[in-house]
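User: Okay, second chain of the day. Same drill as before: sequence in, structure tokens out.
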Amino acid sequence: MKVKLIEPVSRKLNVLGKAYLTVLGNHMAHLDINRYYYPLTVICFYDGELTQKALAEKLDKDKSIIVKIIDELTEKGFVYRQVNSADRRQHLLGVTDKAKKAVPHIIRVFEHMNRSASKNVSAHDMEIFESVLAKMRDNLEQFKESASYTI
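Assistant: Same drill. Structure tokens below.
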């Protein structure tokens, strides 16, 4: 039986993501963390005002994954948890001096990587790319909601 070979969109995105993350990792090797750069920048941006739950929502990640991220960043000396005095059930996330020194570098690398990845891609094409990604995400969210859909 001859089948038609179809490459899933996710594979194309994974190949791009892997290439991006490989180069990113090379630029960040000296930081003593091998991932979670973006979550660290988000925590730093909201320093002391963001709960674990809010971080999970911002990153669209499961709460258990967020705990793992925070645990690793805490173990490496970048992040700390503090009980929210307004609601003792919540933990607010803060960054250490070590993070405050590292995050500007991370942001510079993100800017450099984004420019490098989009080299020879017009601003208009980047707008289209981001619009297409958003539409595809929305389409998949709708598809996920319609579990009764049959192929």
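The first strand starts at residue 50 and ends at 51.

User: Thanks, on to the next one.
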